[in-house]
Design brief:
The structure is a single chain. With 380 residues, the protein is an all-alpha fold. It has one domain: Na+/H+ antiporter like fold. 71% of the residues lie in helices and 0% in strands. Helix 3 packs across helix 9. The relative contact order is 0.19. One of its GO terms (cellular component) is membrane.
Length: 380
């Protein structure tokens, strides 16, 4: 994470994902169509190979390779990613049955405890890596804490921290969690036979009206949630509305598997596009240390979650997925693919969002001030 040595001035660059003004949505989709088709092909190949979460991991790997090598320069607007988040949120919300809600209330203290353990794991990883590399503690903390690369880059700029290295760490963290967690669980539990579809039937018939109704609910609730200025409104809004409908026992038809697969392709492509050629220019040492920190964080979170699951007498897989430092949409998808309690895993991550997101800026500012007073200027 040592890349940018120059002091941050008032003429600060925009965060990487916001450096370009988004074109109109229809134009952006037209530009991305060849990439999305190629990403869908990668998802199909990964499905044939039996790779877990193929419709997201396939596009992620393909887009990351094309982007990092400079073969293409994909710009995937956040509005397109929002569509994938809304689809996943609606599917997850419909899993919030009265029985699932009762279970979450009973496990409430463990949801909060898992969030605090994840925060402690982030802090421990940041301390260890700062001592090993001689780089800033605030920079390592911001690179590892579960949030989006855009939000982390914005906080980094305000705090005078090199944003590119933070984005590198955040992108590696998200990608590693999506890939490593399901593969690790498969390795422990035994690799399943078959083609890896996990019960998905992309050719199944569906009623287009059902898709339109649920999409309208998702889009409308996401728009209303944006008015609250809460983090991740495109997930939390549809999640809240569909969870209430499911809890009341109202019959809302989920999206068909085809739409669900398309949402995963969009999310995987967006995540892969966060990897830029600049990442290779940051140096082998930086890449290795960042990847090592990501794996260390994942190991600490998993061990802490497994211990907490043992105390609770609960399924360790669900606690590990709940504590994994990944995005809520991505981890909900992982839980669904692995056949775990999707609503419970979503509850873990939503709890973390509400506890951590409002507090990340002041925690980073506090660490940054501590480093400045102790060393005169924190290392970058």
């Amino acid at each position: 994470m040592a890349g940018c040595r120059r002091a941050v001035t008032d003429e600060r660059p925009a965060p990487p994902a916001e450096a370009e003004r988004d074109p109109p949505l229809a134009q952006a989709l037209l530009r991305l169509l060849p990439l999305l088709l190629a990403a869908a092909g990668a998802g199909w190949v990964f499905e044939r190979l039996g790779v877990p979460l193929p419709w997201m991991i396939g596009p992620l790997v393909l887009t990351a390779v094309l982007s990092v090598t400079g073969l293409i320069r994909p710009h995937v607007p956040n509005r397109i990613r929002a569509g994938g988040q809304i689809v996943v949120a609606c599917q997850v919300g419909l899993a919030f049955s009265p029985e699932a809600l009762a279970q979450m209330v009973a496990l409430g203290p463990y949801l909060v405890g898992t969030t605090l353990l994840t925060l402690a794991s982030v802090g421990a990883t940041a301390v260890i890596m700062a001592r090993l590399t001689g780089q800033g503690l605030a920079q390592w903390f911001l690179g590892m804490v579960p949030t989006s690369p855009v939000e982390a880059a914005t906080i980094a700029l305000k705090s005078g921290i090199a944003p590119m290295q933070v984005v590198l760490a955040q992108s590696l963290r998200l990608a590693a969690v999506v890939i490593v967690v399901p593969v690790a669980i498969y390795t422990i539990e035994g690799w399943p036979t078959g083609n890896g579809r996990a019960g998905m039937d992309l050719a199944a018939a569906f009623d287009p009206l059902d898709v339109v109704v649920l999409a309208a609910l998702g889009l409308g609730s996401a728009g209303l949630m944006r008015l609250t200025r809460l983090s991740n409104p495109n997930f939390l809004g549809p999640l809240a509305v569909t969870a209430v409908l499911a809890g009341l026992g109202l019959g809302v038809t989920p999206f068909p598997d085809l739409v669900f697969a398309l949402a995963q392709i969009v999310l995987g492509t967006w995540l892969g596009a966060t990897f830029k050629p600049d990442f290779l220019r940051s140096g082998v040492r930086d890449l290795i240390s960042t990847l090592g920190a990501t794996l260390l964080l994942l190991a600490l979170c998993s061990l802490a979650a497994a211990g907490l699951a043992h105390l609770a007498g609960h399924n360790w897989r669900e606690f590990v997925l709940g504590a994994a430092p990944g995005g809520v949409a991505e981890m909900a998808l992982t839980a669904k693919y692995l056949g775990q309690d999707v609503a419970l895993i979503a509850a873990f991550h939503v709890t973390r969002i509400f506890i951590l997101m409002p507090n990340i800026p002041w925690i980073v500012a506090l660490i940054h001030r501590y480093e400045t007073r102790r060393h005169g200027a924190p290392p970058h």
